[in-house]
Amino acid sequence: MPITLLWAVDVYGRVYSLSTASGRWERADDRLLELKRVTAGKGRSWGIGCDHHVYLNILPSETSIRYREETYENQRWNPVDGFTEMLLPTDRWPWSDVTGMNYQPLHSFQLPSLSWEWEGDWYVDQSCGGEPSQTGGWEYAVDFPANFSPDKKWNSCVRRRRWIRYRRYTAQGTWAKIPLDHPKKPPLPLCDISCGGWEMSDQSGRYPYLWGVSQQGQVWFREGIHPRVPEGSSWEEVEVPKEVAQLSAGPGDLLWAVLWDGNLLVRTGLSLDSPTGTLWKEVDSPQKEVEALHVAVGVSVVWVVTKDYKVWFRRGVNSHNPCGSGWISIGGEMMMVDVGLNDQVWAVGEDRGLYFRMGVTQSEPSGNGWIPVSAQWGNSKEIAPPRDDSEFGGQLTEASQGSVLSCTDSDSELGPADPPANPTNTPALEAEDSSVVPLGADDSPTPPPNMSEDASSAAQGDSPKPFIPTSDSFITSLVSDREKTPTPQPSITELPQAEIGEPSAPILPTLETTGQDVPWSNVDLEGAEAARSAQAMGPSQGDSSTVATYALGLETSQGAGEEDGPVWTWITGGGCDVDASSQISWLSPTGPLTSSLSLTPVQSAAWSEQQQQQEHREEINKKPLERSNSVWVRKGALRWWRDWKPQRWVDVGVALEQSTNSAGKKDSIFFVYYTQYDERKYIHVFVNEMTALVPVLRDCHYAFAVYTTQRTRQRWPLVLAAQTEKDMNDWLSLLSDCCCECRGIKGPPSRQAMWSTTSKGDIMVHEPSFSLEAPTHTLACDLMYWRQVPGHLRCVESNSLGLVWGIGWDGTAWVYSGRNGQQPVPGDAGQLHTQTDVRSVHVYENQRWNPMTGYTDKGLPTDRPMWSDESGLKECTKGNTHPPSPQWSWVTEWAVDYNVPGGTDKEGWQYAADFPVTFHGHKTMKDFVRRRRWTRKCKITPRAPWLQVPPIPLSDISVMPCLAQSRMEQVPVWAISDKGDVLCRLGVSPENPAGSSWLHVGTDQPFKSISIGGASQVWAIAKDGAVFYRGSVSPQNPAGECWYHIPSPPRQTLKQLSVGRTSVFAVDENSNLWYRQGLTPSYPQGSAWELISNNVTKVSVGPLDQVWIVAEGVPGFPSETSGAVCHRLGVGPMQPKGQSWDYGIGGGWEHISVRGNSTEAPRPAHPAPAGLPRSPVPPRQQPQANGNIVGV
């Protein structure tokens, strides 16, 4: 790691540097230098002097800074004298720049400042166009605007040559004054500067830009800074809507400013082409009642200190979103903060100590605690000399002129105090503010024994309130006195502000003087007023020679003769290259502390025992290390499907930002940063608003869709894709964990969960609430949160006892082993198993008949592609067709599929009159087109909590629904095999969810759908569409006795049904939803079918007769993919058919099951009618609806 410097300024304007390779503060070599503020960048630092000039310090390097000055000598040929300097009136100057527009004689070039020196004299550049020439450096041309060449021709009427002179920068390693701009008008005196921009996103390593704020609130930008001109050339004013008090520029393209009214301004549009930006945007202070005091900006972070010294962190800041999205309160009380390299944070505490924010990383930019900068100060070469009156007076004059570093930048004119008539009668004083401190010459900690209680009480009544000292002059005096009296002085106990009394506070122990005058040190005008008041009250304070002492909270291990610790006022880490993993000796959180960790103001208090001081200090030292509010960030790169024209994949940057407050509550935001027409933009999604994270099939990418309530309503999910399967799974897992955490969802799905599958085979789960089926204030379907469960299935069925069965695309039966409703057992490796699923991918070969060649692949221009999908809208060949997603792999080769609905001939062809009509398996005279289906199998092998139930492949399954409080020894499970056989699973229970064996139920034809409802009602649909009811099914007779045929709806063929507690719904092949009327306990077959709705592909009826479907499409969104989850509203005992549909998430949903959701909404208690009290008749128990049909 290269050696870099940390810069700091004390209240006197003295500049100190701290190297990462050492542990001692080093003062600048220029002892007369006094700066108010410093800002640092890579390899250089800038400062504002007390003389209002700007200073530059460039770190020494092996490569010197050289700048080449050049000018051109121009001549024209005439027949008399040849080439001379006598030019035509329309020609350029005889000495000019390369353009000829500016007059540049040799004598006009001056050194820009005293920091430069000439390396030599002017000389002619003998190379023309980079090649040596024998023409003395002359270049010839027909006329001046033409192209020059070293070859002289017969028509060469003009010539020129270049003169060069180098100058070298000689002020590296020192603070050099930047000259005022001439002839341009310089800016008014500056009160703040900030450098940044050297890590612009478009070009890294560029030299920094410099910004300044004048005392009138104007913003200035330093132009012309580049590697050969480190000082820049001129100042340019940047218009601002309001007066600015302070600003901060980050290494990238962030610039924030604090207004005088306490709000903040953000500059947008910063780039290499527009370094001053384009527009200001105003941001409110973190607290409306407290104004902002200071702002610090990094690459993608913003820190703010308010006037109550609270520290705040801005969320969501990025070059695409420079304004951020919200404020996070950070522990600690600071006077100012600075963001350095690697977004590391430095601060000046309220106790005037320096602090570093530990734990700041790219993933946790807010860090996790403050630690002090525990470097040593002083130098063996610097020994504080003894002070006398004349010496101190000289120091005071110097400090008065340049060391005033208050927030108002005002100068104090207060001189030294007049010496008292009696040097032994120096009164004890307490100044009101932290500016002026009376000093004594002795360092004895023992109170004078002749001090009476009367004098003490008189001093208490007349002395001003205690204050916080900000000057270190009295510390220097005490250090010099230690040569005479090395006895250590215990510090004063620090008390909270609420415990400090009013002017009646007791007088502190004082020190006896030895005949020296009492020196005074001024820091600001407010302190000077306190000093004058103290001087006026001096003679009436008492007769004892006393002096007040104050605890600064500073501790040092330095020996006598070394300078005491500075009282800091400014710090900048822009040039200090450290990070959270750096091993820096003075940044050790467990090492010796050189300053107090107290983040509260140091207050004067009564004398206390040394042991109490130590205990109190140890208690305070722990406070900054306690974890406060923090921000965690995960960044990455994905691809985003831009679903507006032109629709295409766009490379974007993404970031997940999670904030944690002191109570442990977390709040997360997901950002997507993209660029459109060279304009940086972003999309943000609050994680608590996400409703689903669904893997999708998009162009063989590892893609997933992010749904929110608003995007669900608009049918406009945010589709993202990763480069690898691991990246996609990592982001899905991270986002899903954040979503579950903010909703309080933990562990596996509950027994009441709603299960569903997508057309891709992913398993999704929703945890229901009481309001989901409430008759009033029903939870909107688009507000439901769906989370993914590992595995891959085609359909899932469940019940309220925690039994979950599923069927894969290859017909394999699976049972869930994830401990529904229970916490996972640590170390239980049996939770996850290897699951396999196989599915077929199809393409269609199409041909058209013509009289000459018969069937051929040459179709009409209006025909579908000769290789297409089933719809014929998309061209799909065997070569460009891939598995559904990269997680799948081929296990077979392409082969003709003969198992196609409608049948095929011996070659697998199906025939039709034209492509849009129905195909059949034999050729007729009117058939002019044909097709055949090619199939290829692929396999996926995930790790999931599912156990295989061998050996029979299934096509449909149903688990008997029941209420959550039900108790059943065996749970009926009915299924249909892939051959159409009806099966009943025996031995199924919550303890043995897979059961023991299959029981075959006899039928006279193959079946395709089955469902079992309350009271063991079993309904089924045969492959020809006929409906059957199984009679006499009971726990004692689980297979029943016989089938009863139920008439189907007229001219309709049913394909799927679902039975609830008292209702039966079915779906036909035309996507119509039917309801069975007239179901009663005495006649469970019902009486007639009633059409409810169309646009339905699957239906699920729950144990409370709630109705959910998978809709074929969403009205108003014709381009939406088929498969949307919908909820039937208004379903109740008096209205079993419901009233309307509530459309939820989609498309691409394949199956849904609500048969485990028996969560009933609480019924409000009916108030007792007014009037006479009711008779004490015991309440009658409410009968259950439908009698024994409900009993399970």
Automatic annotation (TrEMBL):
One GO cellular component term: lysosomal membrane
Record-linked Pfam families: Hyd_WA, Pex24p, Tectonin
Chain segments annotated as transmembrane: none
Keyword field: Autophagy, Cytoplasmic vesicle, Lipid-binding, Lysosome, Membrane, Repeat
InterPro entries: Beta-propeller_rpt_TECPR (IPR006624), Peroxin/Ferlin (IPR006614), TECPR1-like_DysF (IPR010482), Tectonin_beta-prop (IPR051513)
Main localization of the protein described in the UniProt heading: membrane
Compartment(s) of residence: Cytoplasmic vesicle, Autophagosome membrane; Lysosome membrane
Region ranges (Disordered): 379-519, 1154-1192
Molecular function as annotated in GO: lipid binding
Gene Ontology BP, a term: autophagy
Family label: Belongs to the TECPR1 family.
Name of this protein: Tectonin beta-propeller repeat-containing protein 1
Gene source species: Myripristis murdjan (pinecone soldierfish)
Source organism phylogeny: Eukaryota, Metazoa, Chordata, Craniata, Vertebrata
